[in-house]
Structures are given as C-alpha cells and as structure tokens.
Amino acid sequence: MVAESGPRRRTGGRSAVVLTSIRKAVEELITEGGSEAITIPMVAERAGVNHSSIYRRWGDARTMINDLATYRLDPERGLPDTGDLRADLTAWAQELIGHYSIPVNAALLRGGAAAAGERESDCLRDRRAEAAGFAARSGSTFSGDDVIDRVVAPIIYRAVFLPWTLTEADVHTYVDELCDRSA
Amino acid sequence: MVAESGPRRRTGGRSAVVLTSIRKAVEELITEGGSEAITIPMVAERAGVNHSSIYRRWGDARTMINDLATYRLDPERGLPDTGDLRADLTAWAQELIGHYSIPVNAALLRGGAAAAGERESDCLRDRRAEAAGFAARSGSTFSGDDVIDRVVAPIIYRAVFLPWTLTEADVHTYVDELCDRSA
DNA sequence: ACTGTAACGCACAGTACTTGGCATTAAGTC
DNA sequence: GACTTAATGCCAAGTACTGTGCGTTACAGT
Fold it and tell me: How confident is the model at residue A35 (pLDDT cuts 50, 70, 90)?
C-alpha cells in the first residue's frame, strides 16, 4: 500500500481478489479474537489463499494488520465542508464514532496501537492530517493539536479501552469547548 | 496478581525472585521489539526461568503482558491530596506523563491496548478509579468521565500513538479547562 | 524443626509457524 | 493476440512454540 518505485505492480484481477479475501478474513478473525490471536496460516485458510502469498506480501502478521488498519477509512473519502466549521467538526467527530463503533474497526485500531510508537507505524496519521485541516480553517482559534487533545483523543481512548461507552462520548461538548476557548 | 480465593499463595522467596526476573525480561523485550514480538520461550530464556513456570502462571503471552501492564503503577501508591484540587489534579496528570514518558511503560500500555476491549482486560482501570476519586472531591463541577475525556485521554493518546510529543501535553490547560467549565 | 503442598525445573511429545525452491497462472503492455 | 514477468499456488524441510506428566525444591503455617 505504501507507494513504491520499481517494477510495475499488478493491482487488479486475481491480486485484487486475493487482497479482498485476505482483508475479509482478517476482519472476521480480529473481530472474533482480537489482533494478537491472528496468525498468517489462519488468515490464509479462511481467505482460501495460500499462506506463502501472505508471507511474501507482508512478511508478518503485525505488519499486515497495521497496513490493513491504516487504510480502513479511505483518506480520499472527502471531509464535511459546509462553511460552518463547528457543524463540520461535529459531523467529522460523529463519523469517527460511527466508524469505531463497529467492532472490527475498533479491533483494528487496537492492533494499530500495539504496533504504534515506531516511526512509520501509525494508523491514525490520516486522522491527524484531517484535524490539521480543520485547524487551518479556524484561523488561529485552535491548532491541530487542540483538535487531537479535545476531540480525537477522547474518542480514540474510548474506542480502545472502553468501546461500550463510545456512543456516550459527548461530541457537541467537545466541539463547543474547542471552538469557544477564551484563550 | 488478581486476588483469588482458594489455597494459600506463595508470594515470597523463590516465587518472588522468579516473578521479578520475568517482569524484568518482559520489560526489556517489550522495549526492544514491542508487545507483539514477545513469546513465552523468549521471556523464559532471558529471565533464566523454565518456560513451563510461565505457561502455568499465565497461560499465554497476552494475559501475561496485560497483567504486568495493569500493575505497573502501584494502585496503593497514594494520590496527591493537599486540599487544592486543581494542584492535585495537575500533579497527578504530571505523574502520568512522567510514567508514560519511560519507553517501557508506554510499550506496556500498547500491549494493554492490544488486549483491551474485552471485559476484565483493562490495564487502565485503576487510573479511572483515581479519576473518579478526584471527581468526587469536586462536588458536581465535573465527573469522572470528564476527567477521562479532558485529561487522561490526551495523555494516553499521545503515549500510545505519539510518544515523542508526550512531554508537550499541556497539563495546566487541560486541568484549567476542566475546573473552569461554565457548565 | 516438621509437614503439606504450591511452585518450580526438566524432558518429551505434539502442534503450529516460517521459509524457500519450483511450477503455474494471469495482469499489464505493446 | 503475443509477450514479459509479477503474483500466486504447491510442497517440503526446518524451526519454534505449546502443553503435560513427573520428580524436586522450598514457602507458609504449626
């Protein structure tokens, strides 16, 4: 998934089918037993794919899961942009909550968390870029870090550690406190 | 580590030495390669302990790591309580930052995150109990959930996903916004 | 000290994962 | 449609992890 130079990649046809099968299998398995219970032979068997194909593509389960987690929310999907910053932020935050309310996405997030802390291993980098985009629209009312601290962090914290409370996250209060800061 | 009824446990002497050795080995290994790269034979070899002792005590690596992560910050250590709630909260938050600034603690936290989402598998439950204690002292100014959302979540988010920015977390602002809410 | 037994070390068997060579299939290009 | 070769499937060997039975050690309580 990372852009590479070199020989022409084959992204369609059979390769695409294999990738789709693998993704489906990983998501099923991760929902059932979490990210740490996944092995490559398990994925291969459920996907109906030979295990050597997976080893060659990713090398190990950790790399595979992190890769699949990173691209689970399409970075090209487009962000809310009605001109009303507060409404757009709220809609965006609610999209995040909806996304991580689905068990498979929360489980993938936990897998990404386990692999985090290293450079180039961050399944939330696209989310931070989106936060920075909103901050830019705010002038200097708040920064990208402020969006992370006050809106993204509470949502992600709940998604990882307290998934059953995720829908109770009070998005409106988060956004209001962010937009109405006296600082 | 979990309190159990039944036959009298042996917590001292050789058992304590074994546990200490295992803890040290796990912390070294997790610092070196993250929580997912750990296997029980690796821990056993480095700790100079037979692997069967580890299998019998925890069963699998995931359970072991989550258990060690849960009790890394002693729940009995005592909390700041000078009478100045704002100062106490600030000191507590700074203690958390100091704790997770140490790479091994952050790595253990990631290991705990990977195992989270299941009941009885939550390495931050003691932190939430502490947050609830502060909330109780505040009367009804803020709740335990508020402390989590506004103070704990930003710190934990950074510790897991952006450890190199953890020390930039603005504890004073977090606490001020929590204590000065107009709501 | 003496006793009961929890916890440990050792050894072995069973299972599962990992890796590479080789043949086959089919995506991308002209 | 023909060609190049990326990607996959198959297989087999090597390696590592998992789990248990049994004897030994030594903690905890008397």
Answer: confident
